[in-house]
Amino acid sequence: MGARNWISGCSVWRVRWGGVSAALGRRAAAGLLAVVVVAAGTGCDALSDRGSDSRPPTSAKATNPPAGLPAAFTAGQRLNWSACPAPSAAQGGGDAPGGDWECATMKAPLDYRRPGRRAIDVALIRKRATGPERKRIGSLVLNFGGPGVSGVMGLPEFAGDYASLGQRYDLVSFDPRGVGGTIPVNCGEKAYEGSDVCEKHSGRLLPYVGTAQTARDLDLMRYLLGDQKLNYFGVSYGTELGGVYAHLFPKNVGRLVLEAPVDPTQNLLQENISQVKAVQSAFDRFARHCADAYDDCPTGSDPEQADQRVIELLDKLKKTPAATGGDEKLDGDLAAHAISNYLDLGKEGWGPLVKALREVMEQGTGSKLMKKAYDHAPGARALPRAGARSEPTGGNGTSALVAITCADSNLRPGYTRAEQWIKETEAASPVFGEAWSLSVYLCYDWPFHGERATPDVSADGAPAILVVANTGDPTTPYAGAGHMVSELGEKVGVLLTVRAEGHGSYPQNQCASRTVDTYLLDGTLPARDTTCS
């Protein structure tokens, strides 16, 4: 399931510009409703009541609107829920979800510092609680990682994983700023074409797509959904969004789960190096298993031999890419990311990875690895990134990933420093270092300054927040979970450790799932330092 190649979630994104291939960080995918920036005198004339729900409304009504917003965004706005349309091109296209799914558009300020100027549309989706109304808790807002992942596309795909929660919560998700149906960033027609193209097509949006702006959208969303407090489940990059929300609105925090957390104490370079080390460690564990379980293990008899064989494979593919049965061939960069994506699946991915490596090593074809190389259509040049729960197709996920990351991070390395960082990244992993290294150039010539080096998730005054982390996570390393708990603040962060491989544990691990459900449904937290096996 399943954020920066430096971290956030499902694997690494890759783009090409100026002849340079870059493995873009892990956090990561697709996009709904055609959304436009609306200029309206005061910016609020467009915020009229556009109808009411087709089904009876719930009795819940929040009394704490976000402070400082014109009344047209709060008292003057209602969410008009109706049947969902087919996904837009920015979301990846496809069929409408149908069934019990409802979609709506929320008006929000483009710039929360000047909320009276321009409004944007934020694309929302929900499935109403399936249980009795008297047992309904409220809405549970979900973010599946990224940045760059469309919640409007992701929620229908993953709703079955949250069925127990969906009995008492309306399950709600959305497209964050820059993604899919919410002011989608355009950095190229079919592929990411560089910062100059981003500025040309989306320059007026780029300063306003950062995580802090999206966190403010979350608070407006909470109010319009009728909830006094925000109940939230964030995965990978979604944990950063949830942490930033808790920092900005500690008194409005309800029951928050942060699963597979990013490390809020690390900048992009530090995240990148930590992640590539974690991927290497996960590969070493896979290699030991392979040697023990298979007489003809394709990676050999121990991790050292595995490193040597896969490095030779990647070098070979770099020179002569393998056929895949499709239009695109498998090169070394794609193969490295595909291996990482199999590792994100935990032990369930180990058997398929053995088959994929056998195919390319013995038959010279790379169809099985290619299936795990991208989380977008091939034209998007994007790979799954840490924190992404899905493998969607198409959409503007690559453009959104870059735009959101560079809006958040103020890291702008000069050429000399960037070259040094590349060497440091390559040295961190013999197998994956080279493929990960060019993410250093991600925000190299971005046209706007980023907000800060690391996100502020300190949440003094918030209730306890549950942080869930796998010890063998190859995408958001386990050490970052402890840092997230510490940064949230004393008596705020509560860590649930899961002794498991892979990126994320809900709903795969029964112990972790029971613990999370108990918290979200009953409000009961696990004892501190609880461990699930």
Detail the topology: elements first, then pairings.
Blueprint: E1 13-17, E2 20-24, E3 38-39, E4 82-83, E5 101-109, E6 118-127, E7 138-143, H1 151-158, H2 163-166, E8 169-174, H3 195-202, H4 211-224, E9 230-235, H5 237-248, E10 253-259, H6 268-293, H7 303-319, H8 332-344, H9 350-363, H10 367-371, H11 397-408, H12 415-428, H13 433-437, E11 465-472, H14 479-488, E12 493-501, H15 510-522, E13 530-532
Parallel strand pairs: 7-8, 7-9, 9-10, 10-11, 11-12, 12-13
Antiparallel strand pairs: 1-2, 3-6, 4-5, 5-6, 6-8
How would you portray this structure in words?
This protein is of the alpha/beta class. 33% of the residues lie in helices and 15% in strands. The chain has 15 helices and 13 strands. The strands form two sheets. Strands 3, 4, 5, 6, 7, 8, 9, 10, 11, 12 and 13 form an eleven-stranded mixed β-sheet that branches. The chain has a two-stranded antiparallel sheet with strand order 1-2. α4 crosses α5. The radius of gyration is 22 Å and the shape is globular. Mean pLDDT is 86; it is low at 1-59 and 375-393.
What keyword list fits this structure?
alpha/beta; 15 helices; globular; eleven-stranded mixed beta sheet; two-stranded antiparallel ribbon; 533 residues
